[in-house]
């Protein structure tokens, strides 16, 4: 007895259930409190009598169980909790089956949990439905709940969505669920694995199974578990709806899904939104879907199918739509299809009159009222992102819909007929008569009068208020047979005139009718077909034409070539940081020398590039020995004297002029020091000996007579135009970009510099690991290729851009290496493209495995397809609507 008292007083363990006033009035306690004492009470019976079989008091057993819904069920749950020990003992003694309440509370009591009902008792709803989504039950209550539903034999719907169940908890519940009656199982937003799948398979395989709906959205299902489930479903003939959304399914999950669709024709609705099937998985999945004759609704939104230049996904969808005659409802929203992809998909959809609703939000297109996909150059998806509506979604709240997606199925469009009777409806008489519907944005649509003495049109329109007006070739009108409506904002309508000009007219008054809402009937589709306008179909003849090629659209587009403007900037900068201002104190002389430098700075810069490359100094400057070789090629008359004085001039020129010249080597001449050296040399040769009247004349004489002829011998700039900037070279780089980019990124990340740029040390390391070094291709040649490929920078003493290679410079260095490694032989001249193809195996060998995934060596057809395109010559056939 004490335990019973403790249970009554232990309010902390009781479920908090509010009762209505009527229930409180009719409660046993109230009734007993109002009973007169004169009525007398029966004396307490001996406890053993409680265990005797009786027909009157069997509470807590299935014999007296009245159901799980309503106030009586809540009171029964309360009574069972209070008398838990007695009921349990009695059922055991009398061999009575426990009620769901008793079985559930028995486990709750053993585990010392609060007696939360968790669907065992419900306020409202059908007896056959247990809907406890978002109750956060967790595995703590899963054992108790499973014992409770073990005694419920008529459960048809079990919704356990978002209950924090693990694989073990979900499997425990499913293993005790009566399989013969259940039609709908929802496990979404729980974490399931092999145990749960095994329990589900037992339900599916049961011969008496009636399971129609299985929702596994956001359940973290593994690819292995999915494969097992799909193999079982491929043999199932009962399931109608399957949801696998938000499970991060990748390409590896496609094959099990394809096998399931190949053999299962009973599934009518498949939800795969918010997965990662991608382009590769898309093609294979759609090929499998094409073989399925049963699927009606499919949701493939948020799967990253779009933004592919090759149009692989778009072509696959176009092919599916043009051949599949069973799909009626498709969601491709937010796959980021670009305008061209939407155009391709729309063309494939034009031949399909069975898809009554297609969702395309979040792509560069809209769907019009007739079901056509209208590509757009750009669509602001942010403005419409919150309006996305799930395929076959059931709205939980009645709310006004502000956006129409033109889906006949989701929006329950209705078939109507609108007529125009000449001389009765209005004054329009000229043929043809057009109607302008607000669901068409008031675009004109021709009405037909075939076999009739009036004009009519059958259309699918959304329910609600439909506004429209009529027109002929010369005027607009409203019909007398329909109600009228004054527009708050007049409509601006465009109409052409006889001279071909476009005019606009504001319409402020329209006809209006109210379209009654009728639920969409999948089994009885409307007579009107989508995308069924009379149209002209093009018959095509294909010709091959050359694709125009320009540097601006090639792999070289990001390379900054040595233009006159760039050279002038370099000359100005070098004059400012050098000692030229000290050598020439006169401002006029400084300007004259500056102009001379600008006129020849391309030659000076190119010569510096070549000499610094072969000097072997990592900071790219001209060493003494290389400078002496250059001076010898200048062919001075007193060559020995010039070489003797070079040391003095070298020391005067090779001295940093300001702090911060961190990329001035010090043991060689940088670019501005080389220019200063040439000026000092001209002063020494011609001014000190009075051979020239001024420094300007001396400098010009040095350049024209000696320096420039020698510089021409170092000029390699023609290599660009003669060999490198060619279409075949560009196509090679585009077809091998995946490999070359992989190699570039691998070695660019090895050093201490920026991870997206490659320095000389990293370039040398790449050449060494690729096995390119030999007796003829040594370190000097490697440095030469690196230096010659680098773009000219204005400031090469304080900034390091000229020492850190970006990708566009890397591919030029690669081409220069190929040109040197495979020199032309007598009687055999190889193109630069052919030389690079010979070098590619070395690059493929050192390329990371991850970067090689999906890449295939290009064939002759690959080059041909990039050089040429097919141009279509069209002939037109008129196709009548069906």
Can you characterise this structure?
By secondary structure, the protein is an alpha/beta fold. The chain folds into five domains: 1-125, no CATH class; 268-392 and 402-412, Leucine-rich repeat, LRR (right-handed beta-alpha superhelix) (Alpha-Beta Horseshoe), CATH 3.80.10; 414-517, Immunoglobulins (Immunoglobulin-like, Sandwich); 551-556 and 719-867, Recoverin, domain 1; 575-716, no CATH class. Helix content is 38%, strand content 13%. It contains 29 helices and 21 strands. The strands form five sheets. The chain has a nine-stranded parallel sheet, with no helix packed on it. Strands 13, 14, 16, 17, 18 and 19 form a six-stranded antiparallel sheet that branches. A hairpin with a 4-residue loop joins β16 and β17 (476-477). α17 (587-613) packs parallel to α21 and α18 (624-633) crosses α19. It is extended, with a radius of gyration of 42 Å. The chain starts with a helix and ends with a strand. The model is unreliable at 1-51, 383-387 and 396-402 (pLDDT under 50).
Helix content: 25-40%
CATH H-level superfamily of the largest domain = EF-hand
- Termini separation: 83 Å
**Share of residues in strands:** 5-15%
**Number of helical stretches of at least 4 residues:** 29
The overall average pLDDT, rounded, is: 85
| Count of the domains | 5
User: Low-confidence spans: pLDDT under 50, at least 5 residues?
Assistant: 1-51, 383-387, 396-402
Structural class: alpha/beta
CATH architecture annotation of the largest domain: Orthogonal Bundle
Strand order within the widest beta sheet: 1-2-3-4-5-6-7-8-9
- Count of distinct strands: 21
What is the molecular shape? extended
Biggest pleated sheet: 9 strands, parallel
CATH topology of the largest domain: Recoverin, domain 1
CATH top level assignment of the largest domain: Mainly Alpha
